[in-house]
Design goal:
- The structure is a single chain.
- This protein is an alpha+beta fold.
- The protein folds into two domains: 2-102, N-terminal domain of the delta subunit of the F1F0-ATP synthase (Peroxidase, domain 1, Orthogonal Bundle); 106-177, Glutaredoxin (3-Layer(aba) Sandwich), CATH 3.40.30.
- 62% of the residues lie in helices and 14% in strands.
- It contains eight helices and four strands, in the order H-H-H-H-H-H-E-H-E-E-E-H.
- This is ATP synthase subunit delta.
- Belongs to the ATPase delta chain family.
- Its main location: membrane.
Length: 178
Amino acid sequence: MAELTTLARPYARAAFESARADSQLNEWAQALVVAAAVASEPKVKQLLAAPGLTAAQKSAAFADVCGSELSDKFKNFVSVLAENKRLALLPFIQTLFIDLKSQLEKAINVEVTTAFEISAETQSQLVIALTKKLDRVVTLESSIDKSLIGGAVIRAGDTVIDGSVKGRLAKLAEAMNS
């Protein structure tokens, strides 16, 4: 997967720079969501892998499936991807594009997994603390995992804070075995 992300990175950066220059970051982000979803469909994957179709035919078929969701500039981007046999990278390009957009907007999505449901007040306090700590606008998503026993696991980009009882017990067991 790291290899696919590496291949997708220059295309994501090019799309991001083009969208930023045209002040259309949100429009491109939405178009990439649609295109990534279409590229992930099994029938579309078959179409993109078909050796008998030219790059122009693949990009035209792809644009037809996406419908009116794509601007002309985005269709040109799809054509470039088709010419370079990179249409299958659209889900990775979309993820990288969103990351670049979040960096520009100084925003981050934070996932909090707890053993029990946390109150709205606790969530708001967590958002305030993480906003100060990360110096970014935080969007919080919470989920429940009973196997944590207690505490929480916080994921913010590449940063993981494991304050769960399960994680602490695992660290204790590791320390005792070494």
